Amino acid sequence: MVLQEIINALEAEAPLNYQESYDNSGLQVGDRSMSISGILVSLDVTEAILEEAKQRNCNLIVAHHPLIFSGLKSLTGKSYVERIVTQAIKNDIAIYAIHTNLDNMLHGVNAKISERLSLKNTRILAPVSNKLSKLFTYVPLNFMEQVKQALFNAGAGEIGAYSECSFSMIGVGSFKPDSFSNPTIGKAGGKREMLMEQKLEVLVPADKITNVLNALKAAHPYEEVAYEIIALQNQYQEIGAGMIGDLEKPMKPLAFLDYLKIQMKTDCIRYTALPEKLISKIAVCGGSGSFLLQQAIVAKADVFITGDYKYHHFFDADNKIVIADIGHYESEQFTKELIVDILNKKFPNFATLLTDLSTNPIKYFC
């Protein structure tokens, strides 16, 4: 198995262009053409994880959190990051991170949390904007279905739970081939042609634009394909931060905290004042999610579950919502299983192993 094949599978599920601007997801150490004998999946990359990979004959570590967030200026071993990078290179072990791009997927990190809590009617809490474009093109009537199907196959025309969505209208197109052209209709150096065409419109997500344009040019009968791509400000409901959904049955606040502790396997929950009413609507964000509090309040969530809350930020609950901080590691620990599932689905007969180690740097005395 070549490393690039594995990267392609991961990025098909979580394209890199959906990661946050501060992030550094993707291949961090390794040669894309190297042969991979086994994959070890972990939340973080530590020296113990690197040693485990060596012991279990895995020469690729796929982690949720990037080892390298900013540029390294030296490799002298003065930090754990430098030591890991040096040892990974010496032992021909590749390191790949799939971080906020996986966080932002509809079926990503927050979907895994929602699954653990058996939430229903789930949706993205804060959908992203400016990640959709509208493609306009002009097609002779007899070739419309051919072109349309090619665009759909390449990923255009998907809106929420619906696929193969488009709009078209009939009009008259004109063109005059010059003497160096090779026209489908008319002849080189000939007269101006007039023919009936359909204007076709389809939505295209950011990660699919290149594939869709290649498909358009391959399927379209014209030598020169006329098209326009317009960036949209629409929210992309399939991509974004956090998730919100409903409990299967409303629960009393303390009963819900007990349930949360068990389902998320956390030793400690820090939380704000509990309401007298039953808990039913839950917002979640794996990792550090305090930036989503107002969206959770606007969405009328009863509880917002995340990690890394600072003391003063708990006051922002303002008796409008319960903040439940279960810890950064605890909120994302099941992401490892999600990554393994992605890889096993694509490569069912390949050695993809889940780490035996906890990389949580925080210990609790309760």
Tell me the helix content: 25-40%
Task: Give the oligomeric state of the chains in this entry, treating copies of one chain as homo and distinct chains as hetero.
Answer: single chain
Kindly estimate the percentage of residues that lie in beta strands according to DSSP. Answer: 25-35%
Poorly predicted tracts of residues: none
Describe the structure in your own words.
The structure is a single chain. The protein contains eleven helices and 15 strands. The two termini are 46 Å apart. With 366 residues, the protein is of the alpha/beta class. The chain has helices at residues 3-13, 47-55, 80-90, 100-103, 109-116, 144-153, 209-219, 253-263, 293-298, 328-332, 335-346, and strands at residues 26-29, 39-42, 60-63, 94-97, 120-129, 132-140, 167-175, 193-205, 227-232, 235-251, 270-271, 279-288, 303-307, 322-325, 352-354. The radius of gyration is 25 Å and the shape is globular. Strand 3, helix 3 (80-90) and strand 4 (94-97) form a beta-alpha-beta unit. The strands form three sheets. Strands 5-10-12-13-14-11 form a six-stranded mixed sheet. A five-stranded mixed sheet has the order 1-4-3-2-15, sandwiched between helices. Strands 7-8-6-9 form a four-stranded antiparallel sheet. 27% of the residues lie in helices and 28% in strands. The mean pLDDT is 96.
